[in-house]
């Protein structure tokens, strides 16, 4: 693979990112004086670090397909540069996160990463991109820390924080007067942070999470936990599960004929309805997206996604599309020159994304600000029936940028 040339600006004052891209770059800098003109002619290397296997595989696929859709809609170029995609299957395995991210940055020399889905894997990516200075846009993983105490100027999230949708659903149930709830989840950052957000939301109306039931990710041995529910005396069970695990969980919950209503973060029923079938009908959940959102962008996006992929769009596709939209906004502002970090980040921070989910802006901690909707499953669609919280920003606690 040919070595990378460097922009002339970097020859004078190399950024952390350009230094990390390999020893060959320093030699080139002295022998090729044409700088930015040559760099601009080269494709922008975009790393997609996502799960393409395991329980979150479909999430990674839909993010990828939507990133590719946005790039195709822009004629294959962002900020005037061709985009070359490098895909890496992170398998949703946190223990492989740092080495996989390191491969993309050091071996493949990517200019930016869109990744990933699993909060634990995100922490591995975060360590690497904070050290290297590589631009990272998060298309799903909600790990709170990356836009709170560990926030970084080169890391933006286009999806949600784990706190946001669960807090919104907690508020919605509190407004309905729901008092006693059990929280059920995989025992890792996404489920636990969502649980904390849900508890805070529910408490706004005097409700309480009276019991937490957990199993390790990605296990699906739900029966011992479901067996405890009849003795809990709760009005509702709220849950965080996603992907293949959510399909199995909802089916087993409904098959068990349990009395407490099943609700939670909308990941339970997003991208899963076809596989769950009738068991999901009538379920109400909270999320920053709903299939039937009646805005022109959503209608156009869902059609374009279906035409190109023969799949129905879901929240993961929306987040992939918005990650690419955010990248496009940044790159257009600096005409593809990723080395102009100040210009790139300034444009991304002030981005107003025309998202299929409705209006999206970026907070000071570089997190999306968006509506959290209440959705009800009707005829196999997550139909929006109300707004739980409008323009909800994550608290961004501890972030200093
Ligand atoms: C997470 O690990 O952050 C996550 C995974 C799937 C859906 C939502 C959040």
Describe the 3D structure.
With 401 residues, the protein is of the alpha/beta class. The protein folds into 2 domains: 43-160 and 295-362, Rossmann fold (3-Layer(aba) Sandwich); 163-287 and 374-392, Response regulator (Rossmann fold). Helix content is 39%, strand content 22%. It contains 15 helices and 15 strands. The chain has helices at residues 8-12, 16-20, 24-31, 36-41, 57-73, 97-107, 119-132, 163-175, 189-203, 223-226, 243-255, 273-276, 296-309, 315-333, 341-349, and strands at 44-50, 77-78, 81-89, 112-115, 135-138, 155-157, 180-186, 208-215, 236-240, 261-264, 284-287, 352-355, 358-362, 368-378, 381-392. It has a 6-stranded mixed sheet with strand order 2-3-1-4-5-6, with helices on both faces. Strands 11, 12, 13, 14 and 15 form a 5-stranded antiparallel sheet that branches. A 4-stranded parallel sheet has the order 8-7-9-10, with helices on both faces. A hairpin with a 5-residue loop joins strand 13 and strand 14 (368-378). Helix 6 (97-107) runs parallel beside helix 7 (119-132) and helix 8 (163-175) runs parallel beside helix 9. It is globular. The two termini are 36 Å apart.
């Amino acid at each position: 693979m040919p070595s990378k040339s460097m922009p002339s600006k970097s020859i004078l004052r190399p950024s952390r990112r350009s230094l990390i891209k390999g020893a060959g770059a320093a030699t080139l800098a002295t022998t090729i004086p044409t700088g930015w003109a040559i760099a601009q002619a080269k494709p922008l290397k975009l790393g997609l670090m996502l799960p393409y296997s395991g329980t979150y595989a479909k999430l990674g696929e839909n993010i990828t397909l939507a990133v590719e859709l946005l790039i195709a809609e822009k004629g294959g170029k962002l900020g005037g540069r061709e985009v070359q995609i490098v895909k890496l299957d992170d398998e949703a395995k946190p223990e492989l996160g740092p080495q996989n991210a390191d491969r993309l940055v050091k071996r493949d020399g990517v200019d930016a990463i869109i990744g990933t889905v699993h909060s634990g894997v995100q922490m591995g990516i975060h360590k690497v991109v904070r050290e290297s200075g590589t631009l990272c846009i998060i298309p799903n993983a909600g790990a709170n820390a990356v836009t709170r105490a560990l926030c970084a100027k080169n890391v933006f999230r286009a999806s949600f924080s784990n706190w946001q949708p669960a807090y919104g659903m907690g508020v919605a149930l509190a407004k309905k007067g729901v008092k006693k709830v059990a929280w059920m989840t995989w025992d890792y950052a996404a489920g636990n942070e969502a649980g904390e957000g849900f508890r805070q939301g529910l408490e706004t109306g005097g409700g309480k999470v009276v019991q937490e039931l957990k199993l390790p990710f990605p296990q699906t041995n739900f029966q011992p936990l479901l067996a405890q529910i009849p003795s809990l005396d709760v009005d509702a069970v709220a849950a965080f599960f996603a992907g293949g695990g959510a399909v199995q969980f909802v089916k087993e919950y409904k098959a068990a004929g349990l009395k407490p209503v099943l609700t939670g973060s909308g990941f339970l029923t997003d991208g899963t309805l076809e596989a769950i079938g009738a068991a999901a009908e009538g379920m109400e959940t909270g999320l920053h997206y709903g299939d039937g959102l009646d805005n022109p962008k959503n209608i156009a996006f869902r059609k374009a996604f279906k035409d190109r992929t023969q799949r129905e769009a879901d929240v993961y596709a929306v987040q992939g599309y918005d990650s690419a939209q955010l990248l496009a906004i940044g790159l257009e502002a600096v005409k593809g020159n990723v080395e102009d970090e100040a210009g790139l980040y300034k444009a991304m921070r002030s981005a107003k994304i025309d998202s299929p989910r409705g209006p999206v802006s970026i907070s000071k901690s570089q997190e999306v600000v968006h509506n959290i909707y209440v959705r009800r499953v009707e005829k196999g669609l997550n139909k929006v029936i109300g707004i739980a919280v409008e323009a909800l920003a994550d608290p961004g606690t501890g972030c200093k940028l």
